[in-house]
Structure formats: structure tokens, C-alpha cells
Design brief:
Layout lengths: L2 H21 L2 E2 L9 E2 L4 E4 L4 E4 L6 H13 L3 H9 L7 H13 L3 H14 L4 H13 L3 H15 L4 H11 L5
Antiparallel strand pairs: 1-2, 3-4
Keywords: Signal, TPR repeat
Length: about 180
């Protein structure tokens, strides 16, 4: 093979690698709850095809909800809220919890609490919403209310579940929220 053909082949391989890297979804940093990757803005991760795709009506509500949470865990709160807006069933404990999470992370703690409380009404045994509601109370300095959520989580899943441990850590060390 001549030097120019080797160089051309090398450039072609490099171009393919760059294209693959840019097309590949990225896992949300620090996301212990989900392995749903995040895609570039305007796309959504389709769990059926395992690819980032343009948003379309054939993406399920659950897929949208999970993806919105991945975006929120990656710090892309406004995008997470926009995806949640596309979920057909807005009266869903998980949707309301993730809406509360993204809203709280945008600095709107009271609004986040409102969403969390709606979620709790729909599913009082949903430990994740109890954890996030407790964290919001810690942010507000309402440690008594945070402790109530911790006690409720203990009745739901014990002291070894992630939700209990995370809220307990937040109460003990509020700077980590």
C-alpha cells in the first residue's frame, strides 16, 4: 500500500470513529438509579432500538419518563422538564416526582415540593419521592419534616435501601445535596 493510500485509510477510520463517538449516547454522570443514556438536545434515547432518535409519537410514556430522569440526573433540568411535558399521562407518581426533582434542582424548591406532594398522594409507598421530598425539606431547613420522610422510607424499604441511606446522609450532611 502506498503512503497516500495508508494516509487516506487512516483518515477514513478516524472520521468513522469521530462520527461514532458523536452519534453514541452518553451515560448520565453520577446516575446510580438508571442506565439510560443521554443524547444530544432534540433527541431521545429509544429503549427499543437502543439508539438516540428524533422525538416521535411512538416513544412510550415510560421511555420518556426514564429519559427525562436521566437528563435531570445529568444536570439538564430544562430539557428534562420539556421531555416530561410530552408524557401523555401527567397524573403519574413517577412523572410528578421527576418534575419535582428537576424543578427543585433549578432552585424552585417550593414548586418541587408541590410536585413531590402530588406524587406522594398517588403513591404513598414510593420511596424515591419520599427521599427527594425529604431532601427538599432539608434545603428549606425543615429537618423535622425530613426526618418524617426518613421514618416513612424505613417502613417502605428498611434502612439498607438507597433511598433511606441517601436521605439520612442529606440530613446528616446537608452540603452534599
Amino acid at each position: 500500500m502506498t503512503h497516500s493510500r495508508i494516509r487516506f485509510a487512516s483518515l477514513a477510520i478516524s472520521a468513522c470513529l469521530v462520527a461514532a463517538i458523536h452519534a453514541a449516547p452518553v451515560l448520565a454522570a453520577g446516575d446510580d438509579d438508571s442506565e439510560t443514556p443521554t443524547c444530544k438536545k432534540g433527541e431521545i434515547y429509544d429503549t427499543k432500538t437502543k439508539r438516540c432518535v428524533k422525538q416521535s409519537s411512538d416513544i412510550s410514556d415510560q421511555n420518556r419518563t426514564d429519559y427525562a430522569y436521566s437528563l435531570a440526573k445529568a444536570g439538564r433540568y430544562d430539557e428534562a422538564l420539556a421531555i416530561l411535558d410530552t408524557v401523555k399521562d401527567q397524573n403519574n407518581a413517577e412523572v410528578l416526582n421527576y418534575r419535582g426533582y428537576a424543578t427543585r434542582k433549578l432552585g424552585k424548591t417550593d414548586d418541587g415540593i408541590s410536585f413531590y406532594l402530588q406524587s406522594v398522594k398517588l403513591d404513598p409507598h414510593y420511596a424515591k419521592v419520599r427521599e427527594y421530598l425529604g431532601e427538599a425539606y432539608v434545603i428549606k431547613g425543615q429537618l423535622d419534616l425530613a426526618q418524617e420522610q426518613l421514618a416513612t422510607i424505613k417502613t417502605i424499604c428498611g434502612t439498607s435501601c438507597e433511598e433511606y441511606q441517601d436521605l439520612n446522609e442529606a440530613i446528616t450532611n446537608p452540603s452534599k445535596i
